[in-house]
Fold this protein.
Amino acid sequence: MSTVVVMLGPPGSGKGTQAKRLVDVLGIPHVSSGDLFRHHLSEGTELGRMAHGYMERGELVPDRVTVEMVIERITQPDCDEGVILDGFPRTLTQAEALDEALREQGMAVTLAPLIHVSDEEVIRRITARRVCRDCGAVYNLVFEPPQEEGVCDVCGGDLYRREDDDPETVRHRLYTYYKETSPVIGYYFAQGLLVEIDGQQPTADVERDLRNAVQRLGEPA
Ligand code: ADP
Ligand code: ZN
């Protein structure tokens, strides 16, 4: 039996951080659509150049290219046992395309944790977020500052603020989230796959609730 976890929640809800922590628990890879796009961007691929404008404005990259990029990634052999998806699906079209691609592999979404965080908290967190240019480690100047300002604890790389992490773009990303991604929440709720988690607790408590939800998966209802 494979496990496909779809992490849901607004930008800045901590779904990426929590997705990474689940990797060791579940022994399956973490695939973040945002990271895939940022990778294309830094490599200067055609896809990266195309996605850049949308990302900069806090808008969604069109479904067709997004679906193709993510499906290509999750059909790699390392995802045979399952995958933890983060940032995808973000529209109903993407959710349906995911189901279809999984069905072809004899797989299905098994759990959709929704991490709740208020809009004020999202803006507060994201504007203090810094990312390592080299290894992608994420810091928060308020809650999880690096030991040395501007330097990654893990690899010594340079920390930067994502260009879409300025307050105005964050507000637009939230708007996009409510408009485009809310239907995805309903989609998984209707299938009994949604688990709601309070994302404003300390990260360790969010992690505990998420682990509990994942562990209940294997048990009879
Ligand atoms: P967030 O912190 O908003 O969750 P991500 O790193 O997931 O940020 O995504 C950054 C940007 O990449 C988005 O604002 C969007 O432009 C693009 N993107 C990421 N995932 C998707 C997706 N599934 N569909 C369309 N665009 C996406
Ligand atoms: Zn680093």
